[in-house]
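Consortium newsletter contribution from the modelling node. Members have asked for a concrete example of what our holo predictions look like. Here is one, prepared for the flavin-adenine dinucleotide complex that several groups have been discussing at recent meetings.
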Amino acid sequence: MLDLFHDDSHRALAATAARFVDTNIRPYAEAWEEAGSFPSDLAVRAGAAGLLGPTYPESVGGGGGDVFHGLVVAEALVRGGSVGTAMGLGSHAIALPPILALGTDAQKERFVRPVVAGTRVAALAITEPSGGSDVARVRTRAVRDGDHYVVSGQKTYITSGGRADYVVTAVRTGAPDSGHAGLSLLVIERGTPGFTSGPPLRKMGWWASDTTELFFDDCRVPAANLIGAENFGFYAIMANFAQERLLIAATCVAMAAEAIRLTERHVREREAFGRRIGDFQVIRHRLAEMRTREAEARSFVAVVAERHRRGEDVTAWVAMAKNAAVSACSFVTDAAVQLHGGLGYMRECGVERLYRDARLFAIGGGTTEIMNEIIHRFAPTSR
Ligand SMILES: Cc1cc2nc3c(=O)[nH]c(=O)nc-3n(C[C@H](O)[C@H](O)[C@H](O)COP(=O)(O)OP(=O)(O)OC[C@H]3O[C@@H](n4cnc5c(N)ncnc54)[C@H](O)[C@@H]3O)c2cc1C
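And here is the predicted structure:
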């Protein structure tokens, strides 16, 4: 029911994305997951197919679509069988929106257009070793020196941190105790002296996506790379979250759907006690619960996305949609492993990977607890 609000342009993009995934991702997904990376020219092919910027303006090479065009692509990528590849390929979706919202035309041309074409990679770096939930406590310093900023500090858990050519980085330009009012966003380019990334961090899931630490050691960054006004970064980061969290929610719904598809196939084929396990009532009911949780989350995400498309303030609704989709995905992937028995615990089995990959979504893009805080603060009061 995410397609409740789709028109022909969404359906056409879904078909293009499905064809791309069938040819370019699915046959290799398992090998890339085991290798811990995917080939860099995949982005070029995805860019040529129009899959890297479906919601970005046509003036920078994007598709000019709405939020549902983004969700359609997110869903299709999950069906490729490697959430890690989908996340690595999709790191632009959290990095570029602040540039599109607040950047100059020259910045958009320089940093956005090549990423949409797939010839450059963009990442967003907010989280630091001292914490990620409390964005207002960012410690990485950027001190103005003539027409440069001198940046020193460290980031961690950055998606595409090892590949990124451009890192949209949250830095403190205000006083150390300035909180959210002293943050700015700077694009720090690969090759800038003093900027290095660590080796890929070893993770529970998302294996094909590179996740690294970033180090800034008196790194001189042109002041021309400041996105928006100085000390306005916090608001840019917050404005970005609605779209990011809807993408995460749609990804979770797609993962739940994929886990159900694999499980339905398995219970039709597997036999125990002289009959197919899908004929046991308890298993039929468990599958019915899985389908219900997926459908609930799918419908809710669709409605919230539609309200976002209409320009309503959906801060609390997006947080609810993320938590609902994450919870549905966790329930469904856990049940999928259970219904596969021992096979569900094996690396060769698709649901084993979905189960591991799902765990991150209660943490990344704002934790479940932070979503609950947002719901508490922003949801309309009941009368
Ligand atoms: C694979 C992966 C990819 C990632 N990609 C990126 C990326 O591209 N860019 C980026 O910037 N970051 C990225 N992150 C970081 C991610 O956004 C953070 O891990 C997340 O925001 C949580 O921050 P933290 O890990 O510091 O946990 P903490 O902030 O230390 O939280 C620890 C626990 O305390 C809870 N908690 C904190 N504050 C409160 C509160 N007020 N009330 C109740 N509970 C609270 C949290 O919910 C959590 O359960 C990624 C992380 C992973 C694992």
